[in-house]
Amino acid sequence: MHRALDLRVALVHDYLTQHGGAERVVVRMLETFPGAPLYTSLYEPGSTFPEFARADIRPSVLDHFGPLRSDHRRALPLLAPTFSTMRITDADVVLASSSGWAHGVRNNAPIVVYCHNPARWLYQTDQYLGGEARLQRSAVRLMRRPLVRWDRKAAGAASKYLCQSSVVRERIRAAYGIDAEVLPPPAGLDAAGPTREPEHDPPEPGFVLCTARLLPYKNVDALIAAFGLLPDHRLIVAGDGPERARLVALAGPNVQLVGTVDDAALRWYYDNCAAVVAASYEDFGLTPLEGLAFGRPSVVVRWGGFLDTVVEGETGVFFDQPDPAAIAAAVRATVAATWDADTLARHAHRYSPARFAGRLREVVAAAAGAEGG
Q: Can you say how many angstroms the Cα of residue 295 is from the centroid of all Cα atoms in its chain?
C-alpha cells in the first residue's frame, strides 16, 4: 500500500471563477496535498478564494477568453470537449472535484472523484440555469444525448467515487449505478481566523444571515419576500451572482445585499448574527456548519444536504418549502428559542478538517495501491 504523502497527486476542478462551497472543498484538498498541481478550465483570481493564488494552477486554453472567465456558463458547450482533451501525465493519482466536468479528464493514473452533484447542468437544467439563460439551455437540449453518454463514460472510468451527502449518493446511484462513499466536507470558514467589521454600513447585531451565490436555485427571492413579513427582523445577504440586480429590486428596507465579502468580514457577520437562513436546494448543507462554528442555529429548507447537517430542534429549524410565510414562521421560532451552545459545538466538531483530510489520504493511497497491484 502506498502512503498518500509519497504519491504524486494532481487535482482537477471544474472552474475557479466563484466563491462557492465546492471551491472551499478544493482549498481543503490543496491543504491535504500541498504542492499538488490544480488543473481547471477557467481561473479568475479576483472572483474566487485568494488561497488559489499560492497554488500551481493549470487552466485550459479557454482561460484566454475573458467573457468565459466572467461567466463560466457561457462556456457550457465547450467544457466537455475541454476536459476530454485535458491530459495529466505526471501523477500517480488524480483527485477530481466535480460537479459534472472535471471527472472527464484523461489521464494514465487512477482517478478518485469527489462528486458535489452529478451534472446539474444536464440532469437539473431548469434549476441550474433558471429562466434567463436561453442560449445555454438550447445548447444543453441539442447536446443532451451525447452529453449523457460522455458523462456516464467519464463516471465509469473512476476508481473511486466520494460524495458530500446522502442525497448526492442517491443521485450518483441513479445516474451512474455507482455506490459512492459519503465523505462530508468540513466547514470551509475557520472560525478562529481574523475578524474585521465591514467598512460600509455594518448592521446592528441580531440580524439573520444568508450566505449564497445569487443563482435561481438558491431561492434568495423567497427569503426577501419572507422578510417583507418580518418588519422587526433584518436580513443580510452575503454573496453575488447573475440574480443580483433582480434581487436588489425586490429587497425591502430591512434587507441588505452586501455582495461578496472576504473571510474576515464574513466571520464578523456570522459572529454578530442571531441565526443563519437558507432556502436553497443544496447538495450539502455547508452554511449551517459555518454558523455552528460561531454558535449560531440555522433556519433551512427540509431538503437535500440540510437533512444531513441540521438536527431539528437541536441545531436548527426546518421549513418544508421555500415559501415566504413558512420561512417567516421558522425565522420567528428560531430567533425566539434558546439554543444550547455545547450541543451546537459538538455537532460542528463532527465535520472537522482533520477527519476529512485523513479519509481523503486513505482513499488516494488505496487507489494507488489497487492500481499498482
A: 21
* Pick from 88, 87, 82: nearest CA to 101: 82
CATH number of 207-349: 3.40.50.2000
- The pTM score is 0.77
Confidence of residue 129 (pLDDT cuts 50, 70, 90): low
Using 50, 70 and 90 to split pLDDT, how confident is the model at 373? very low
Enumerate the CATH 3.40.50.2000 domain ranges in the chain, comma separated: 4-186+352-372, 207-349
CATH superfamily entry for domain 4-186+352-372: Glycogen Phosphorylase B; (3.40.50.2000)
Phi, psi of 249 (to 5 degrees): -65, -30
Can you tell me the distance from the alpha carbon of 189 to that of 40, in angstroms, rounded to the nearest whole number?
Answer: 23
Q: Which of 179, 177, 189 is nearest to 28 (CA)?
A: 189
297, 275 in Cβ contact below 8 A? Answer: yes
pLDDT tier, 108 (very low <50, low <70, confident <90, very high otherwise): confident
Query: What's the confidence (pLDDT) of residue 187?
Result: 77
First to last CA, the chain: 9
Across the range 40-52, mean pLDDT stands at 96
pLDDT for 186-210, tens place per residue? Answer: 877 888 899 999 988 899 999 999 9
| CA dihedral sign of residues 256, 192, 338, 313 | positive
